[in-house]
Each structure stands twice: as C-alpha cells, then as structure tokens.
Amino acid sequence: MALPPGKGSELKQLIQQQLLKMDVHGRIREVLAETIREELAPEHRQLSTEDLIKALRQRGIIDDVMKELKFVTDVSGKERASSPKPSTHFVDREPPVMKKTNIDPTRRYLYLQVLGGKAFLEHLQEPDPLPGQICSTFTLCLHFRNQRFRSKPVPCACEPDFHDGFLLEVHKESLGDGSKMVDATTMLSVCDPVHMVLIKTDTFGETTLVASYFLEWRSVLAAENGITNVAVELLGLKYCFTLERQKTAEKERLFLVYAKQWWREYLQIRPTHNSRLVKIFAQDENGVNRPVCSYIRPLRAGRLLDTPRQAARFVSVLGYERAPVIGGGGGKQEQWCTLLAFVCRNKGDCEDHANLLCSLLLGYGLEAFVCVGTKAKGIPHAWVMTCGTDGTITFWESLTGHRYIHRPINPDDPPIVEQPKPLYPYRTIGCVFNHQKFYGNCQPTDAVEVCVFDLQDESKWKPMNAEAIKSVCSPGTASSVPPFPPLCASAIDAAVASNDIELQLRILVSEHRKDLGLSTVWDDHLSYLLSPALAAYELERATGISAGNEEFQDAVRRAVPDGHTFKGFPIHFVYRNARRAFATCLRSPFCEEIICCRGDQVRLAVRVRVFAYPESACAVWIMFACKYRSVL
C-alpha cells in the first residue's frame, strides 16, 4: 500500500524527526546488543530483520513511536455531516489548508492509485485538446464503506491521463467497528468491494455512464508488503473467496427455486396473471440479474434533506432518460442502475428514480413501496406508494414530485353513486415491493382505480416469504446490491450559477433581437422584482404550499406605469445549459412573444434562480418579462 509521491518524503521526515526526538536509535542499539548477548550468542546464528523487529515489539518500542506520531490531513474540502472522520483524498489542488489532527495511526487504510487508462478505442482518432479548449471529460467515482470519492475530470482520450490517489479507510467507527485495531483476518472478512463508476461528460454538460465495476481489493492482503501484512497466505485467501462465492451462489439458487415456485402458484390463481407486470428480478448496469428488493434500502440524507417532500423534489430534479434499446426497436430496455451509478450520472429511468425515492421515504420512517405497472397507452412505469397509519394510500410520482391520494372506485356500487375521479396517470399495477416485502396483485382486475391496497389481505395481494427475501437482500449479503453510498452535498454555488446563466441569456436575447432588427433595453429593477415569483414557484414544487404571490403582483403593478402592459413567462429546467434553455424557450409562443416584443418604450427583464440539491442536482427557474406602452 504505497503512499503518493508527495507524501512519501513528508512522512519520512516526520518519522525521522520523531525517532531523533525519542532517541530511538540509541534504544535500538541497546536492544540489538541485548538480543545478541542473550539469545543469539549460544547458537552463533545470523540476526535477521524479523528477529530485531520482534524484539522491538516485545519491548514496546514500536508502540511508543506510533503513539507519538501525528498525521497531517488536508481539510480544504467541505466536511460531510454523515462522516464523522472523513478519509483523506489525495488530489492535486490549489494550496490546501493543512492542519494536524489526532488520527489513530494504527487504523487500517487502503490506498488506491489510478495510474491511467488504456484502450478507449472510441477516442482513438480524437486530437489532443488545445489549452483552454472545452472538451469531453472522464470522471471516476468511487464508493467504499460509506466513503465517496471523485477524481479530477480528465480529457477523453484513447489513453486518458488519470493520476489520482484515494485513501480508503477500511476501519470505520461509524459502521460500528469499534475503536480497536483490526487485524488481517478481520480485514479479510470485510467483503465490501470498491465500487468504481466511470462517467463521461460531453461539451454540453450531458453525462453518460461508461462503466461500472466492483473491485475486489482483498487480494492486496496476500501481497508481500512486509510489516503491513501478517500471515495471510495466497492459498488461504483464494479458498476464502471461493467459499464466499459458493455460499452466495447457493443462496441465489435457493431464492431462484423459491421465486419460480411462487410464480407458478401466482399463475394458478388466474390465467390472466401471466400478462401482469410482476417483476421479481431486474438487470443492473453490469448485466447482473438481482432481486428487485435489493435495489432498495432505507437511506438517510443527514442534513442535506429535511422532509419527505423535499426528498421527492430532489429526486424529481435528477434527469430522466429512458434506458437505450440496443439495436433499436420500440421495446423497453431492461436496466436498473445501482444507486452510485444513478447519482453520479445524475439521470436515469423511472425505476431508478422510484427506487431512490422509496429508499429516502423509508429513511424518514414511512411505509413505502415501489409500484410496477403501466400508465397511459400501456407504457410500463414505476412510482412510489406510502401507506399511512390511518389507511391512507398516497402515490408519489418520482419524476415530478407530485403526490396523489388514492380513493378506490367500488365497481359494485349502483350508477347513481358518485365515484371519485382519479387524478393520477397510472392505469394498471402488477406488484409492489420494498427492501423486505414483495406482493403480487391477485385482485380480479389490475386497474389501479379499483385496486384495494390492503396488503395484509392475501386474497388481494400474494406475498413472498420475508425470510426468502432477507436471505438475498439483507445488508451484508454478498448477492445483494453493495451498501448504499451516502448522498453528497451540492458542489454548485447557486448564486454564482444563477448570475452566469442570467448573463448568458441576456447576451443570447440581445443577439436574437439584433438579428430581427430590434434594439434591446434591459430593466434591472424589473428583473430583480421577478425573484420572489421564482422562489415561490420552487417552494410550491417542494412543499405544495403557494405563498408570496400577492406581494409579487403588488410590486409589479408599482413598477409598470399607467398605460403600459406587462407580460411574464416562467419556465423550469433541471440543467444549467443557457443556450439549450434559450432554444427551448423560443419554441413556446408565449415566451417568443416576450423575447421578440415590438412596441413603444419596450423594456425587457430576465431573472434566473438556481436551487441546489444534493449530488449537484439543481432546479433552474427562468422568467422572461417585458413591459411596453400600449398603442392603439
């Protein structure tokens, strides 16, 4: 486990100073003389390094040195509330602020160094980027035992120039490992892999998932690294891995046998069940089939999200993109992403959104399930359902953050009885599940509007055995999706981003009007008055509460003189590409009318407000407005 080049000399100097301070050289000479006199003289055998280290350990000299050492860590980055002792991440940054911290030097770390990439053949013909030129980039994201890291973006190339180091803490107090030093045997039992996700970002800011890989790091325990490894033979390590895989395969085999039996029983209830969307397994980004329950786990957002509705808003601003169908065609590609791949890419399909929202709602203590069914025109869809203690069923649309109360229609009621009109877009439902439970809909019809969500009634919902689900989906099970990574705070400065987008939009509007032969005069005061409206729009999306509209209308009336007309157009995006947003706005006849406004004393205004959420997701509100003198 080598240290990065810059840290090696620093550590050597620190150790050398400490050795001189404690007169360790003199104590070593004394131990050497005593060892030769007492133990080696009778046999006249040669003194080995191992003999000397053993003698120093027995006399406690090594322990004394380690207790006195102090380590230096980089604290220039933002501290995470969810990580009480953040691990060091060695990267080349601006001069960092360094301070001494009392980190226990006997804790175990794994140093992972990325030395570059090879054979990215799709970039074989790409020329090297010129200085200052915007180009597509690769970013490597890592997750290991509740720690997350991100490499510096590097230009896309056939051999991308990755040169980053990551110090991963194997022993974490926050995971309940206690405070004692872990030995090699204990580290061997740590089966968590290092999850590596490679993301490509193009020149327009669009992200693409390139690869997802689970690195088995424990082979390093068998490397010949001297003092860092203790009595772990390669044969024993291979046997341990083989035994683990055998246990995992057996659990998965037994669950598959049970799932097939459950499915046969389900089909025997009613032949039409064969056409219902009952999904027991789903394929991840690596092509591995996993039980759907393993994609969900209670997830706590720490201080990053305060309420379930705010969590729903956060999930809704993550981009939506249907998984591509290989070879074309109108079918739907089956691919559910692991959480790390989803949040690093910042976009995914409806199932990815539903799984994340369900996990967050479970973290807030709600009884939440993912629903699999269809919406209009029979399009497969996934959404979230929560069951209240009073029996209230609430649907959560993870792509928009909207909530709907479900009131079932009773088909046996006479026509004179007024039935509730569903406001939700869902048509059929085949199954519901979370991290512990799975239910197949076995009611006479799978139409959502008439479904009764009494999940304890086995005549309406066929359950899977909870122990069977637990065997392959519980935390720590090797066959389940790896432990969920913690959410990261946003790296976006909302005020700076808002100003940048607004400035770019002003330039784009002025150029567009110039092409039409129109002059442009901006009203800064009117632009500022649009801010409360944008804040109110986001508040309503996040909480469902509308507030502040009266003050906004009053301020606008005061800013628009008598005989003048005011027009405004708000629009919402989940990306920060100003040119792309402007092109979209022009496709709206209402917005195009404002931007291309003609008349007497025309004054234009634009206001941008970026609302930052975890994982650098953002809601971008833009309002264009104009005022002009009405001429009959």
TrEMBL record:
Is Ubl conjugation set as a keyword in this record?
no
What are the Centrosomal protein of 76 kDa C-terminal domain coordinates in residue numbering?
A: 492-629
InterPro entries assigned to the protein according to its UniProt record, in alphabetical order: CEP76, CEP76-C2, CEP76_C, CEP76_N, CEPT76/DRC7_peptidase-like_dom, Papain-like_cys_pep_sf
Domain of life of the organism encoding this protein: Eukaryota
Q: Does the keyword Cytoplasm apply?
A: yes
Which residue ranges does the record assign to the CEP76 C2 domain?
Answer: 102-237
Q: Where in the cell is it found?
A: Cytoplasm, Cytoskeleton, Microtubule organizing center, Centrosome, Centriole
- A Gene Ontology BP annotation from the UniProt entry: regulation of centriole replication
GO cellular component, as recorded:
centriole; centrosome; protein-containing complex
SUPFAM superfamilies noted in UniProt: Cysteine proteinases
Keywords from UniProt, A to Z, are: Cytoplasm, Cytoskeleton
Outline the extent of the CEP76 N-terminal domain.
Answer: 10-69
Domain (CEP76/DRC7 peptidase-like): residue spans on this chain: 334-464
* Assigned protein family: Belongs to the CEP76 family.
Describe the function of this protein: Centrosomal protein involved in regulation of centriole duplication. Required to limit centriole duplication to once per cell cycle by preventing centriole reduplication.
**Per its record, how is this protein called by name?**
Centrosomal protein of 76 kDa
Which classification does the entry list for the species?
Eukaryota, Metazoa, Chordata, Craniata, Vertebrata
Task: From the UniProt record, report the name of the gene that encodes this protein.
Answer: CEP76
